[in-house]
Design a protein that fits this description.
- With 68 residues, the chain is mainly alpha-helical.
- It is built from three helices and no strands.
Length: 68
């Protein structure tokens, strides 16, 4: 089976730094996707906590068209 991280490491680029950057970002994204798959309830709670903090700080919700 093909290792998904090898796709980011084998990216052809003019600079070595760009390949390393793509490799690091690829690993970070794959880790976040794995975390989201294993802990969906944790992510749901983080979203709820963000909404509660936003409401407590009275930051306007830009997606809600009704004025406060």
């Amino acid at each position: 089976m093909l290792d998904p991280t090898s796709l980011f490491i084998r990216v052809e680029s003019k600079t070595t730094g760009m390949k390393e950057l793509l490799s690091v970002w690829g690993i970070i994204i794959l880790s976040l996707l794995r975390f989201a798959r294993i802990y969906p309830e944790t992510i749901h709670l983080l979203i709820q906590d963000t909404a509660v903090l936003r409401d407590a700080a009275q930051i306007p919700n830009l997606t809600d068209p009704t004025p406060p």
